[in-house]
Amino acid sequence: FKEGKYDEALKNALSEFVVQQLKGQVSDTAEFSHHITHVVTPPHTRTLKTLAAVLTCKWLVTPEWLIDAQRAHKSDPTAPL
What is the CB neighbour count within 10 angstroms for residue 69? Predict the structure, then answer.
């Protein structure tokens, strides 16, 4: 989320969606834990966390993926995510 395209308000909204609707947890620390299942990252980003996710076979998803999931949930809250 270091790119200018993604502001703090979007990050907060997506974090809230992950916690409230997906019943997930958000980690803003630089630490990579075995509890992590998905890493949200802009395309073509290379950070230690994204590299650790690749090496440990975790899902890399874009912020747009979460935005699309949020829109789908708003249009049909009963549909599985």
Answer: 17
Global pTM exceeds 0.90: no
Region at 57 (left for phi over 0; alpha for psi -120 to 50; beta for the rest): left
Q: Which residue has the tokens 């990579």?
A: 32
Long-range contact set of residues 28-34: C-beta below 8 Å, sequence gap at least 24: 32/56
Q: Please state, in angstroms and rounded to a whole number, the distance separating the CA atoms of residues 24 and 34.
A: 15
DSSP state string for 13-26: HHHHHHHHTS----
pLDDT band at 2 (very low <50, low <70, confident <90, very high): low
